[in-house]
Amino acid sequence: MGVITLTSDFGTKDHYVARIKAALLKFAPESTVVDISNEVDHFNITAAAYLVRSTYLDFPEGSVHLVALNNTLIPINRFIVVVAHKRFLIAPDNGIIPEIVSSEAIEEIRIIEAFKLLSGFHELDVLTRAAAHLANGGALSILGGETDEIIQLQSRQARLSEDAGRIEGEVIYIDHFGNAVTNIKKEDVEVRRNDRSIVIKARTHSIQGIENSFQSFAAKLIKSTKKRNAAEGELLALFNSSNHLQLSVYGSIPQVTGSVVSLLGLELGTRVDLLFITDSQ
Question: Which domains does the chain show, CATH number per domain?
Answer without folding.
Answer: 3-143 (3.40.50.10790), 159-277 (2.40.30.90)
